Amino acid sequence: MAEGSAFATRRRWGRRLVAIGGFIATVFLTFLGLLAITFFIGRVIPIDPVLAVVGDRASNEVYAAARTAMGLDQPLVIQFFHYVVNVFSGDLGQSVSTGRSVVEDLSRFFPATLEMATIGIMIGVLVGVPLGVIAASRQGSIIDQIIRVVGLLGYSMPAFWLGLVGLALFYARLRWVGGPGRLDIFYDGLVSPVTGLLLVDSLLAGEIDIFWNAITHLILPASVLGFFSLAYIARMTRSFMLDQLSQEFVTTARVKGVPERVVIWRHAFNPIRVPLITVIGLSYAGLLEGSVMIETVFSWPGIGNYLTTALLNADMNAVLGSTLVIGAVFIFINKISDVLYRVLDPRAR
What we know:
Blueprint: H1 2-44, H2 49-54, H3 60-69, H4 76-88, H5 102-137, H6 142-156, H7 159-173, H8 198-204, H9 208-245, H10 248-255, H11 260-268, H12 273-289, H13 292-297, H14 303-312, H15 316-344
Helix pairs in contact: 1-4, 1-15, 5-6, 5-9, 5-12, 5-15, 6-9, 7-9, 8-9, 9-12, 10-11, 12-15, 14-15
């Protein structure tokens, strides 16, 4: 009996190790594919990284020497091999725009994007999910129609236009929020970066005034981002809920006299939590990679603004590094969503 129990335990741990190994292998291969895509796109687009370094007035000899020093005279396969080795050793090259290493730049700019996108997805979830549930529970009513129109506006309205209107109304006219940037200029540099997240760092430093000032600057761009994620999350929540509300177990609960609130939030909502995780994860990743317009409008010092500047300056190391980080975050969020999917749904284990 004891031997059978020990064998079952070893078998269970063996399956877990195989699953963990498969997970790590999948992440590695996906990241390697991302490396290949970013590298070869960087070589195909009509931007010469050598000219970005030496300038367009450099002599042929200087150009050739710089090209050799950058390793661009070697075959693409050799270049890709060196690129992979450098990436896995933490070297993304030097930025032409800033003169610093790309890794150092990304450690400065990415937390600002992460902070704004995190607040944005929190707004999207806290508002979008209840709106989707309400719309589904009152299908065909005026409330449902209004929520669907709000979702349609979120899909069709240009981000830069909404950001400019928000600045003109809430900052320039009403003075309810702070202006462009992360802080007022007289607060800039007073908080030493620890995590890079200004809200967290200001609280750690005990600077409450700076914390609230950062909130006033963050709330408008985060709300604009949150509006777009809200539209997607509300639409998908409504669709999932309509499917559940048509199921027989919901009808049975209503026939038994279960209160409508319990029917909606316990019987119908619980089964949609799993697909909602995937929707929220994709929306969050989309905010991280799609905040370029918002960061440009609000002069937000994030990775989107950094990527735009790098593209304008033909700074390929910064472009490839930024793209790689965004892709890696996308992969990470997807994998976390898969793990949560398995935790919440026993059938997926």
